[in-house]
Amino acid sequence: MFNSSIEHNYTKLASLEHRKKYAQFFTPQPIAKLMAKWLSGNKKLHSVLEPAFGLGIFSRELLLHRQNLKIKGFEIDDNIFNAAKNYFNSAQNVNLILQDYMCNDWQNKYDGIVCNPPYFKFHDYDNKNTIKEIETKLKCHLNGFTNLYTLFLLKSIHQLNENGRCAYTVPSEFLNSDYGKLVKKYLIKTKTLRHIIVIDFEENVFDDATTTASLILCANDNITDKVQFTNIETMNDLKEIENLISIYPEYSKQSKIYSSDKLNHEVKWKQYYQEQNCVKYKNLVPFSNYAKVSRGIATGANEFFTFNLEKAKERSIKERFLLPCICKSVNVKKNYFDCNDFEYLKTNNKSVFLLNAKKVDDINVKNYLLKGQEQGIDKKYLTASRNPWYSIENRPAAPIWVSVFNRNGIRFVRNVAGVFNLTTFHCVYPKEQDLFNEFNMDIFFAYLLTDTARNIFADNSREYGDGLQKFEPNDLNNAKMLDLTLLPPKDKEKILFLCNKAKNNVREYNDNYFIREIDKILNRNFMI
Ligand SMILES: C[S@@+](CC[C@H](N)C(=O)[O-])C[C@H]1O[C@@H](n2cnc3c(N)ncnc32)[C@H](O)[C@@H]1O
Fold it and tell me: 127 CB less than 6 Å from ligand 1?
């Protein structure tokens, strides 16, 4: 909606596939204008870097007011690069370079760096050289996987001149995820972070609406050690941002302001900008006292490894080579999943089987595996690392599943059918014996369905755009829950009575009268 005409025209010409390949999602003009304004706050702004140039919306904004800037832009896709070159043809002071930003230009520093970086998962297995270079240059250690945008941000902070300003728009996910810890640590260590603005618009103003965005404003100026967090929800709130940029190094309100050294890179930063639900309750304990959450089975090639009845018949794969397995969370509508539910899915030809080809002694299974090899399924990232390539992860069927992505709060499902699950759900394994003698699965599960539990878990979620919440297994393992052992025996009995009613009356637990009654008991006992 706020796309300027250049971006708009490009979007019409380039295929969505091409744009996705390069993460070509454009910054809305009002946001680009604010970011340019932050850079202009550096009175000595002369050299500017745009690390992911696209069509140069930031440079266009900057040049409106400062024609004499010396701008350098990096772009990796020659398609958009040529379009940008055409547009900036007559601008002598704009130097566009068709190169990967992460592998080049480490030696140069800038007065201003402004960027909407590409969002890609970044695994160290396919980027060994780049990883090494980043680790050496930034004197840090990257582990496993991260997301390219955090690496862009790290590098840009490293490239700031004295008094240099940096403005990035990135998904807010890094604030609350494991892979974000490194960049958070670096922001604290360099004392360059000044403002984090978390944008949670109800309407989709961003071109790519899959994530909530945040603006990261940094300054390498030693003027202050304060960091302010601001939440904005409508385009009108942008005025507030404009104000906080213009009064820097002063800070407007006194709320949500922290000294750099008070920030902890290990924790979710959500607690600095969003009121935590758990503060409303007393007697909270780690969820991991009660249960352990692991991700579901990852096959590396779901199309190949999953079966419905028809496919099994077609390939003559016998049921003894197939594990009953939930492959898609949409197939599970209720909070209680039993054998009848499984049979229903099976007879309706849903994909509810997983190939279990251990000790292959069957010609049809052998042939199917050979077909897989012909298609290169054995060479995929996960399958290539397994021995044999078609073996599946060995984990017991989980008695409780929990949804990974949620629009209406976290969803738990009691799996009494003993069915396995792919990564569409995480597995919840209650610690039945160890922690408290009187573990009662019914009370535990009833608790998981209450709003109280949902609210407390929400403190540990990652937010995507449009109210979409995501939980990784460790978000849940590190979450809190009420210490149910402290419930008076009478209330425990009452809860048990209510959950039996809930189970017997309707198997759809959501918005269930009995669950709401359980919520009331919990509130009476635990609410502060
Ligand atoms: C999210 S878009 C932002 C475009 C523009 N700056 C804006 O804000 O509207 C990211 C741009 O970076 C480019 N890009 C992707 N990977 C890159 C890399 N490694 N080095 C430089 N540019 C890259 C993409 O082709 C795309 O044009």
Answer: no
Contacts of 351 (CB under 8 A, 6+ apart): 306, 307, 308, 311, 327, 328
Model-level pTM? 0.76
CA 409 to CA 483: how far, in whole Å? 21
Tokens at residue 282, please? 């007393």
Please give the domain boundaries of the chain with CATH numbers for all domains: 5-274 (3.40.50.150), 288-356+392-526 (3.90.220)
**How far does the chain reach from its first CA to its final CA, in angstroms?**
45
What spacing in Å lies between the alpha carbon of 24 and ligand 1's midpoint?
6
Contact 453, 481 (CB under 8 A): yes
Does ligand 1 lie within 6 Å of residue 80's CB atom? yes
Rounded to the nearest angstrom, the distance between the alpha carbon of 144 and the centre of ligand 1 is 23
- 55/73 Cα distance (integer angstroms): 10
**pLDDT tens column, 470-519:** 899 999 999 999 999 899 999 999 998 998 887 765 455 455 788 889 99
Q: Which amino acid is at 197?
A: I
Nearest to 218 by CA among 267, 243, 183, 270: 183
